[in-house]
Amino acid sequence: MTHKIALITGASRGLGRNAALKLAARGVDLILTWRSGKAEAEEVCQQARAMGVQAAALQLDAGDSSRFAEFVAQVKTLLQTQWGREQFDYLLNNAGIGIHASFADTTEEQFDELVNVHLKGPFFLTQRLLPLIVDGGRILNVSSGLTRFSFPGLAAYASMKGGIEVLTRHMAKELGPRRITVNVIAPGAIATDFGGGMTRDNPQINAAIASQTALGRAGLPDDIGDAMSLLLSDEAGWINGQRIEVSGGMLL
C-alpha cells in the first residue's frame, strides 16, 4: 500500500513534532523541516520509522524566502530518491516564532521577523511547493486563538495570524479547481516551549488560562496534534476554507 506523504515545517519540537508523530501513527510518511534542531528532528524521524513509516528531515528557515527555491529542489530530489514519486499529499505550514512586546515597544525588526516567518514564509513557500502537491491534497496553515481574543504584548504576532486566516480563504478559493483543500487551525494557549514556555512553566499563567477555558485546563500538544492530523485526513475532505479553533472553549 502506498502511504500518503506529509511535509511539516518546524517539526523538530512543539506542535509540529506532535503532529508528525500523530500522522505517523496514522500511517503517513513524513518530510520534516528544522531550522536549528537537527538532532531533535532526526529523533522524530526515528520515532516515526519505529511506527512503520518513512521519514526524512531537511533544514529550512521558514523566514528566509531567498532559500525557498533551493529547498523545493531538495524536496523534489528527496521524493524521487526515497519514494519514487513526484509529489506529496499534505502540507502543514507550522513553523513559527513567538515575540512578546507591547504595541508601543514593538520594533520594526521584530515586526519584520514575524511577517517573514508567519505570513511571507507560508505564502511563498506554499506557492513554490504547489507543483509538488497532488491534486486532491491538503494544506493546513496555523493561526492562533489570538485572532479572536486579545492579550497585551501580542499585537504584532496576532496581526500576522489574522493575515494567514485571510490568506487561507483565498488559497482555498484559488486551489479549488485542483481539489486541494486549505484550512487554518487556531490553537488556544498550549503548554509547550513556545514563547519561552510561559503556559507550560508558569503556574500562575497556566492556572489563569485554565480558569478562562470551558474545559478547565490549558491545552496540551496532543490536543493540537490530534486535530492537525484529523484535518489533514481523507475524512476531512469536505472541510475547506475554514478557521478551526482548538482551544477547549477559551474565553467563550
Which properties best describe this structure?
8 helices; Rossmann fold; seven-stranded parallel β-sheet; alpha/beta; 43% helix
**Number of domain units:** 1
Label the structural class.
alpha/beta
- Spell the H/E element sequence: EHEHEHEHEHEHHHE
Q: Biggest sheet, in brief?
A: 7 strands, parallel
Q: How does the overall form come out from the CA principal axes?
A: globular
Helix content: 40-55%
Task: Compute the CA-based radius of gyration.
Answer: 17 Å
Tally of DSSP β-strands: 7
* Arithmetic mean pLDDT: 96
Would you identify the regions where 5 or more consecutive residues have pLDDT less than 50? none
**CATH H-level superfamily title:** NAD(P)-binding Rossmann-like Domain
Distance between the termini: 44 Å
Spatial strand sequence of the major β-sheet: 3-2-1-4-5-6-7
Count the helices. How many?
8
Strand content: 15-25%
Assigned CATH architecture:
3-Layer(aba) Sandwich
CATH topology tier name:
Rossmann fold
Using the coordinates above, name the CATH class: Alpha Beta
